[in-house]
Amino acid sequence: MPDGTGSFISRFIRVRGTVQGVGFRPFVYRLALRLGVRGVVRNDAEGVAINAFGTQETLDRFAGLLREEAPPLSVVRSIETSKSGTAECLSADFTIAESAAGRKNELDIARDTAVCEACLREMRDPHDRRFGHAFINCTDCGPRYTIIASLPYDRPNTAMADFPLCPACRAEYENPASRRFHAQPVCCPVCGPKLLFLDSKGHFVETADPLAPAVEFLKKGRIIAVKGIGGFHLACRADSADSVRRLRSRKGREEKPFALMARDRRAADAIAVFSYAEARLLESAERPVVLARKRTAPAVLPLADEIAPGLPTYGIMLPYSPLHHLLFDKSGFAVLIMTSANLTDEPMVHTNDAARLRLSGVADGFLVHDRPILARTDDSIARVAGGAPLLLRRGRGFVPDPLPSPCGVQGIVGCGGVLKSTVTVGRGSSCYVSQYVGNAENLETLEQVDEIKNHLLRVLAVEPECYAIDLHPTALSSRIAGAGVPLVRVQHHHAHAAACLAENGITGNAVCVVYDGTGYGEDGTLWGGEFFVGGCSGFIRAGHLKPMLLPGGEAAILHPWRMAMGALFPLLGENVETLFPKTPKKDRRAVIEMLSQKISCVETTGMGRLFDAMSALSGVCLRRTYEGQPAIMLEASATAAMPSLEPPAYGPFIETDNAGTLLIDGSKILMATLNDLKAGTAPPAVAARFHAAIAAATALVAGRLALQNRTELVCLSGGCFQNALLLELTVGLLKKNRLTPVVHRLVPPNDESISYGQAVIAGMRRQKQVLYRA
Questions:
Q1: Which of 404, 479, 486, 644 is the most buried (most CB within 10 A)?
Q2: 195-369: which CATH topology?
Q3: What is the pLDDT of residues 590-623, one digit of tens each?
Q4: Of residues 21 and 570, which shows the higher confidence score?
Q5: Residue 697: which residues within 8 A CB-CB, separation 6 or more?
């Protein structure tokens, strides 16, 4: 047919991205009817395929609106058109066809999102057939990633395969005008999953309403395990100190804060103060746990002090599943503790059998259901830093959105590090970073890492071609690498840097600052306060924190006062023993013996260890009971002093070694803080000055390296940059020096980003035909 504006033509339109299970086909159908376009739309292995027939002007507008008006849960990565569609487009109307199979799988997996307002209204309407239905959902909300077994995203390939649709639900499912058209988890009380309540021994409790005993248990101060979207929570009253102490004792969690779930925004406002950015994050469809400042006066809703001891913040989320809303509706509580159901350092429980086995003696009752969780996924955690969200844990709501890569990564699997493990699977030029798993220091967590790796490979239809593993020769995470597949070993901090570069689309070189606890360096020592110059292809170690002694290895990490003694020993000698008079003398003498003879001491450049030392020196934290505690408490102390203080920076104490490497002398910074404390300066003020000193030294070294290497880009990565105060101070100084700071926003700066960086680095080496190193 003639290709003129007023003439009818046919076109084939290919849409790729997160376009299945998010209401994209009914959206296309309604858009076509509105514009008078004829043809057909279907799902296939590459995304959504449309054969369209209309005038050129109409089809141009049709293609443009596919992106502009796309459903809220969809992510359109690309729209491609070819001038000639198939004979299907010559139909008299527009139809939705069945999914088509195919060998090439380019689909993105939809993520889990909070239940929408429309579904909540139905759930709370006594006249609606889904009144009180704990599994209500539609194309705009509900579980996706956690219930998918394989692609394409059709009901037989999900956890809903064993729940046949009743006639009423099928009518909605097949009606393009319904918001439940081809919503794969759609169901009702007749055909959907069922709630059950079990007692403390895992025995079924006969009841017409399983929520009733769960609510009764909560009111009596008992602990219940609740099966959610991605796994189990342990829930109890937040206003009962006895309940919280009991939960801590049973869970083996001494002081680490518990997450809270508030009934609604009003309840959240009663316990915490939210900035505009924090409130938006709290109410987003992703529903992460958001760190927000505790409301101290007036105490609108007093909570137990044991929830977040020693910290000025709560971690708060809003309900995201229908079951959560029903619990609040029926109990009348405004706030509940809702923490991941696991014992300390073990993976989160996600099956009914595992809950009965692993949580026996922890939970007094179990509120469960019979819909399987196919990909256990913990809650995401975020805070606001520099006016924008900063992820601290990437899980439900954010996974498995694809992340960019500067090169092809097909078949590359990044195995991650030890702490905060993740797995990354490469497909095409996209990286699919898994949900947070945990610390791969035990068999249970390692098995979960392997389970998640296999799930991602299966749903993405990817065959492993290469495994990227940590440089450390005994890293446990490398055990998930398949036999007979090439290995690439990647230095820990280079992986951090590459992840920050890749997520920000930087393909050239930059100055990369990576601050964390410790990671295995290329020289076999423990790195952690690094300045690299380079990119994803390679790096030069151009600067670092001056090495400090770590007396007793792991013992110094668990007891930060040891780290302080190790850092100050070169300056004070045996006088460091007097710094901690309340610590047992025999323990202090043992550390002096180690330091004097350099026995059981290793050198580290870890910036995280310097923060630990400062935390102990200022009396904030002498014993670590959870990862990051000393630095978290130090930041809280410093932040409290910042509004009334213009902190003078100590130092900068920068020197150059014989090889021309720039060094920050952390021991001298600590010495300056010690003198300040002895002069009577309040510890919070000294903590604030310490943060300012680290930021100033960082900006100065980065600035010198940027000038030498003719770049304005400075990437900031590593777990230390979860510290909002350090991040904001450093970013501010870099900008003041006319440099461009580059930070993480898509993945956390901590070790969750390691697998992403590993995959990108392996892809660059393959592209440059660098031999894989076994």
A1: 486
A2: DHBP synthase (3.90.870)
A3: 999 999 998 999 999 999 999 999 999 999 999 9
A4: 570
A5: 649, 651, 652, 653, 654, 664, 669
Residue at token pair 């995470």:
477
Q: How far is CA 517 from CA 59, 461, 510, 557, 628, in A?
A: 56, 36, 22, 9, 9
> What pLDDT, in 10s, does the model give residues 184-234?
999 999 999 999 999 999 999 999 999 999 999 999 999 999 999 999 999
Using CA of residue 261, residue 264, residue 266, residue 269, what is the dihedral sign?
A: positive
The answer to whether residues 500 and 536 touch, using CB atoms and an 8 Å cutoff, is no
Q: Give me the pLDDT at residue 772, please.
A: 44
Per-residue confidence (pLDDT) for residue 774, from 0 to 100: 39
In terms of Cα–Cα distance, which of 741, 774, 747, 742 is closest to 760? Answer: 747
AA identity, residue 541: R
The span from the CA of 454 to the CA of 482, in Å, is: 11
Average pLDDT on 575-580 reads 94
Q: Per CATH, which fold does 8-96 belong to?
A: Alpha-Beta Plaits (3.30.70)
The Cα 52–Cα 70 span in angstroms is 17
Residues 116-127: pLDDT tens digits?
999 999 999 999
160-192 as b/e, with b when 16 or more CB fall inside 10 Å?
beebebeeebeebbeebebbbbbbbbbbbbebb
Helix axes 322-331, 211-219, angle to 10 degrees: 60
The count of other CB atoms within 10 Å of the CB of residue 374 is: 21
Superfamily (CATH) of domain 526-534+542-743:
ATPase, nucleotide binding domain (3.30.420.40)
**CATH of the structural domain 402-490+752-767, one choice from 3.40.190.10, 3.30.450.20, 3.30.420.360, 3.30.70.2640:** 3.30.420.360
Quote the tokens at residue 14.
């290919």
Phi, psi at residue 770, to the nearest 5°?
Answer: -80, 135
- N-to-C CA span, the chain: 59
Residue 17, beta-bridge partner list: 76
Q: Determine the Cα–Cα distance for residues 365 and 235; give it in Å rounded to an integer.
A: 10
Q: What is the pLDDT of residues 716-753, one digit of tens each?
A: 999 999 999 999 999 999 999 999 999 999 999 999 99
CATH of domain 110-192: 3.90.870.30
Contact 691, 725 (CB under 8 A): yes
Instruction: State the average pLDDT for the chain.
Output: 92
The domains of the chain are located at: 8-96, 110-192, 195-369, 402-490+752-767, 526-534+542-743
Structure tokens at 718: 């590593």
How much is the pLDDT for 86? Answer: 60
- Residue 764's nearest CA partner among 574, 535, 459, 442 is 535
Q: Residue 551: is the preceding peptide bond cis (ω within 30°)? A: no
pLDDT at 150 over 90: no
Size (the chain), residues: 774
Number of alpha carbons in the 13 Å side-chain half-sphere of residue 25: 31
Q: Which of 33, 105, 113 is nearest to 71 (CA)?
A: 113
Structure tokens at 635: 């930041």
Q: Is the pTM of this model over 0.85?
A: yes
State the Cα angle at 19 between 16 and 22, rounded to 5°.
170
CA distance 182 to 26: 8
Sheet of 466-470: strands edge to edge?
Answer: 403-404, 430-433, 424-427, 412-414, 466-470, 487-490
Task: Pick the range with the lowest mean pLDDT from 13-22, 111-120, 516-525, 659-668.
Answer: 13-22
Same fold? 8-96, 110-192: no
Q: Strand 47-55 relative to strand 8-18: parallel, antiparallel, unpaired?
A: antiparallel
**Amino acid identity for residue 716 in this structure:** L
What is the per-residue pLDDT across 674-718, written as a single tens digit (0 to 9) for each? 999 999 999 999 999 999 999 999 999 999 999 999 999 999 999
Query: Are 214 and 224 a contacting pair, CB within 8 Å?
Result: yes
Q: Is 387 exposed, middle or buried (0-12, 13-18, 19+ CB in 10 A)?
A: exposed
